[in-house]
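Fold this sequence, please.
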Amino acid sequence: IVGLQAPPSIGSDLQKAVETHGAKPGDTAWWKALTAVWASSWSDRAYNACKRAHIQTEDVAMAVLVQQLVPAEYAFVLHTRHPTGDPNDLYGEVVVGLGEVLVGNHPGRALAFVAPRDGSRTPRVTALPSKPIAISGSGLIFRSDSNAEDLEDFAGAGLFDSVPVTESIERTVEYRKERLVRDLEFQRKLLDGVSKLAMVVEAAAGGTPQDIEGCYADGQYFVVQTRPQA
């Protein structure tokens, strides 16, 4: 799959499209990113997960979503109704840097927290972070967007790859120096803002509990994607 060539009939149009959205003129690295996302549906991890769930790999339809990569300081995943705890709470996880550390198969824990859906109390941290690396980057990212989330008895979110066009940078996180851990006032404001954002997104989605991915950069919150909570 990664050896596929862009069809001449659409290759130039695709090149112009990605250049319009931030790719460097003449740079074809985006095609490698695109095929790498397609190929991830055949990775050992995806294949074995599908096999355990009795899902045929050919039943997983893979599309690719192209987005501008937000140079995130922190990334988060939110469930606007706690999936395993008090249904009157929301649940969230936060990591340093890009969200690939959170939704990908990286070791360690994210900072986890709960907060009342009605905002009646401040968010409460339930687990401190231990993920050893943070990822930074900018430019375009090609994200997997499959039907796996919708297959019966199978949740494929995070199972397939998202690939940035520009190579991302990994660094070791020193939590004793990390603002998310040592600055409790900043931590409170960040988690409070994320919690309020979660309920705004749920309301905009018609009141259905949401599974939200987003990030924080330069004092602003960004929603990358949201889907109905399973």
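The longest strand covers residues 220-228. The CA atoms of residues 64 and 93 lie 25 Å apart.
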